[in-house]
Amino acid sequence: MSLMVNPALFRIAVLSLFLAAACGVLLHGSLHAADNRSPTKSVPATQPLRLVPSGKVHPAAGTEISGLAKSPSGRSIYWAVNDSGNPPELIPINVRGEILSNSGRGIRVPLAVNIDWESLAADDSGRLYIFDVGNNFSRRKVLQVYIVEEPGTAAAITTRPRVLQIRYPESNRAQKLIHDCEAAFVFNGALYFLSKRLSDATTVLYSLDAPNPGKVNTLTPRDSFPVGGYVTGADISPDGRVLAVLTYRTLWLFYDFTDDDFFGGESKAIPLEGGGQIESIAFTGNRSVMLVNETRNEVFSIDFDLPTDRSARGPVISPRRQAAYR
């Protein structure tokens, strides 16, 4: 039996289907564009690196390790902190994840509150910087950085922390979920923060050049880069020539830059497989890093090379991690 079709209605139906399909393509593209953006410069293709654990952090250190920093004393000690809800403690470990404190546990930071500790850094003056900057829903307006002298492994508590309060310069009303941060580092006397923007897959670099403990310090936006994922950690190499930026699936290496124009030089992306929820990174040498999985406490070690190993343009910064707070 044949069906009688009104030609006008048929044209309308066809047009509707076409528009629906087009909208679907546009919607699909908008949802995935952030994850597939190309950097402004071409990035050398790198084979995926399958991660194999080289150690495991004992559960006594906590099970949500979110920040790592190598001892500023040069000893083979790596300090770790845990995410929100955990005690305000620094945990000394080695590259295999073994706890090095005499107590076998963390060293308490007095008068500090772990609202959302997400990163850790050190300077060349023997200070550790604990970045309480986690902000999953961008609701926190004022964040803080705790600064303590590096403790000995026999200590029960650290020195009394100095506190820097910080805030972002932009309003969060127009753009939601842009003020989370899980990656920060110290370089040439300044603090640097890399955003974990839940609204897209671009990270924004902010700096704090002249910290003032007597007021709320406003961060300065410096640059941005389409990393194609959520930034979970960062560190600067001992020679100050490589910035490592970690996402859940990629290790980004920025090098051959001038001064602190980190994204203005060259870059290399190393896809990572099998690492799970990796949220902390620290350099163990100029061309090697240590990662820790936040949920499984697995330790991973990576040695890498760069397409070119030219000296950074401009003068070499020395010391590379000058104190950001005096």
Walkthrough of the structure:
This protein has 326 residues and is mainly β. The chain has one domain: 6 Propeller (Neuraminidase), CATH 2.120.10. It has one helix and 22 strands. The strands form five sheets. The protein has a five-stranded mixed sheet, with no helix packed on it. Strands 7-8-9-10-14 form a five-stranded mixed sheet, with no helix packed on it. Strands 2-22-21-20 form a four-stranded antiparallel sheet, with no helix packed on it. β20 and β21 (288-293) form a beta hairpin. It is globular and about 45 Å long. The chain starts with 6 loop residues before the first helix and ends in a 23-residue tail after the last strand. The model is unreliable at 1-40 and 310-320 (pLDDT under 50).
Mean pLDDT: 84
Main sheet record: 5 strands, mixed
CATH arch. level architecture: 6 Propeller
Number of helices: 1
Stretches with pLDDT under 50, minimum 5 residues: 1-40, 310-320
Instruction: Assign the CATH class.
Output: Mainly Beta
The first-to-last residue Cα distance is: 89 Å
Helix content: under 10%
What is the number of strand segments? 22
Quick description:
With 326 residues, the protein is mainly beta.
Topology of this structure?
Elements: H1 7-33, E1 49-50, E2 55-56, E3 65-70, E4 78-82, E5 89-93, E6 107-108, E7 119-122, E8 127-132, E9 143-149, E10 162-167, E11 181-187, E12 190-195, E13 203-208, E14 216-218, E15 220-225, E16 231-236, E17 242-247, E18 250-255, E19 266-273, E20 278-285, E21 288-293, E22 298-303
Parallel strand pairs: 1-19, 10-14
Antiparallel strand pairs: 2-22, 3-4, 4-5, 5-6, 7-8, 8-9, 9-10, 11-12, 12-13, 13-15, 16-17, 17-18, 18-19, 20-21, 21-22
